[in-house]
Design a protein that fits this description.
There is one protein chain. By secondary structure, the chain is of the alpha+beta class. The chain contains five helices and four strands; from the N terminus they run αβββααααβ. Strands 1, 2, 3 and 4 form a four-stranded antiparallel beta sheet that branches. Helix 3 runs antiparallel to helix 5. The N terminus is likely disordered.
């Protein structure tokens, strides 16, 4: 359980935070075309700068496979509220925790489960609920809108 605290390594992601200082300036001027805020933006749960994260995928061995089978998923979130401009920043600080949630959800399912469309929907809803707990803040209690699986491959 306490391993979850290791997830706070995500705070290392705060390096990227330095870059965000420029953001404050850009926002004030509102003139930086590169930083257009897109409420529809798909926010990854894997930090792209993280060397260990192969192309933003999460790889998990399903239950009962003894490591012989694995599922590769890529998960993106859309924010619920267009006004929640800090959503991506909060998500960026919690990537390890979000990945851990995905991993534990998928590890608890068998290969058979994971091949059922219903399971995918169930997992989508579960992730949304758990991600909301992790990402609430700045006055937004259910900040996660859509959960998008851009990849869902059973090997």
């Amino acid at each position: 359980g306490d391993d979850g605290h290791g997830g706070d390594d995500g705070h290392g992601g705060d390096d990227g935070h330095g870059g965000d200082d420029g953001h404050g300036g850009g926002d004030a001027g509102g003139g930086n075309p590169l930083e257009v805020d897109d409420p529809e933006e798909l926010v990854p749960i894997v930090d792209a700068a993280d060397e260990a994260a192969a192309n933003r995928s999460v790889v998990v061995n399903p239950k009962g496979t003894q490591g012989k089978r694995y599922i590769v998923v890529e998960v993106y979130m859309q924010r619920q509220e267009p006004k929640d401009k800090k959503f991506k920043e909060r998500a960026g600080k919690k990537t390890k925790r979000l990945q851990e949630i995905v991993t534990s959800e998928l590890e608890s399912k068998t290969v058979e489960d994971l091949q059922k469309p219903l399971t995918k929907e169930f997992i989508r809803r579960t992730l949304q609920k758990k991600f909301n707990d992790v990402l609430e803040g700045d006055g937004f209690h259910a900040p996660v809108g859509n959960i998008v699986f851009s990849k869902w491959i059973m090997q």
